[in-house]
Amino acid sequence: MGKKYFAWSFDDGLEQDRKIIEILKEYRLGATFHLNSGLFGEKTWEGRIGNLGMTEMPAAKYEAKARHLLPYVPHFRIPADEVVQVYKGFEIASHTCRHVNLVRCTENERRAEIGGDVKALSELFGQPVVGFAYPYGIGAKQSRDALKTTGIRYARVATSSKGFSFPADPLVTPLGGWHLSKNIFERLDAFFHLDAEQEDAFFLMFAHGYEFDFGTKESNWNKFKRICETVAKHDDVIACSIGEAFRRHEEG
Ligand SMILES: [Zn+2]
Question: Among the four 41, 121, 161, 214, which has the fewest Cβ within 10 Å?
């Protein structure tokens, strides 16, 4: 009989993660946090159009302007001296040192950005770092060698999967869903009602903490809690980190 794994995946190491972690603990859900070791403490503001974060503006520039055309939410990263305490008990994964566009990097830059981040994070957190998320969801093809030499076992892209199978190639792991999709509860329902006789299934739920601050109909803190509550209600779903889902799936 197949097992069902659900994992939350959060990017960039943001201040909103503190509140996210409180809620995850309340519902006993696991998660993976993809961090940039070279950007701890950085403060920018994220302008949105609809439910999409569109433009990042450095905090000094944002504060210097009296008026803004777009609605903005804070994209403040947790400082280096607090991250270990904040993320205690959760899987830490890499997202490159400085959130670079891997398509535009040279091979040496890719190796430095990926290898350097994995090394810094594993030393800082005292846990092996085996997970990765491509900044902007791109660069899977170009980064294969750099990821493999670094010991990365799975890497998340930004496209969505159709079904709920574990990916044939873990270095191109798609999203099961994005919390702010209109049909996310229908999508979750399809996952919950999968035939128990089938193979192992996986739902990777994607989010950035700042998106919950949008306060729009499809992207808000209440919806985040409702998703957590719905997942927690299903006893047959193993809600863990991405790394644990892969590990348990591979171990059988
Ligand atoms: Zn990111």
Answer: 41
